[in-house]
Amino acid sequence: MFVVHGTRKFLDRAVATAPPSESSTTKLGSWYATVLFWKRQIALFVNETTLLPVLIPLAPAASVVDRFPAALAVILEAHRINRSFIDREVAEMTEHRLAKTVNRSVVGVMSEFARLGAAYQSAHAGRGGVVAAIGRDSVRAAVPPPRQPRPRTRGVHNTASERPSSGLTDPIARLVNRILY
Fold first, then answer.
1. Which of 60, 118, 138, 151 has its CA 20 to 30 A from that of 127?
2. pLDDT digit string (tens) for 22-43?
3. What does the alpha-carbon distance between residue 33 and residue 10 come to, in Å, rounded to a whole number?
4. How far apart are CA 56 and CA 49, in angstroms?
C-alpha cells in the first residue's frame, strides 16, 4: 500500500478509494502528486524520500493513481534499478490511499520540477517538448547514460580507477540501493 499526498488540483481530479493512512508500506515511501496544465494535462508524481519525478498523462484522471505503478517501473528500470526491487515495489503498490500534502519541502520541489518542465516545453515547442517525452523509449533517452571511465594517462597508475566499480553511476540507483541495503 502506498500513500499519494496530492495537491488540491490533484485531489479534485483523482478518485479517493479510502480514508488516508498514516504511512506507506513500500520501500520508497510516500509520493506527492500535482497536475500540470500543459497542452495535454500531466500528473507529476515526486517521491518524498528520493525526490524522483515521474510524469504520466492525467487522462483519464480516475485511473491515474492505478496507472502510476507501471510508469514508476519504467522509470526505475531506466535508472537501472535491480529488477527484483522493482517487482517487489510494484507488487506492494496494489492499494493506494490519497491524502493532503503535509511536506512543504516536497511541494516546493514539485513546483521547481513544474517550472523546469514548462521551460523545457517552451524551448522544445516544435518537437513536442515534455509531453512528447512521456513514453517508454523517450524515458530511457532522458536518463543520462552511465559515465565511462577515463583512459589512464601514460605512465600514471591511478588506484581509484583500478578499483572495481559497483556499476551504479546513476545517483537515483545509488540512493535506492542505499535505502535497500
1. 60
2. 688 889 989 999 999 888 888 9
3. 7
4. 20
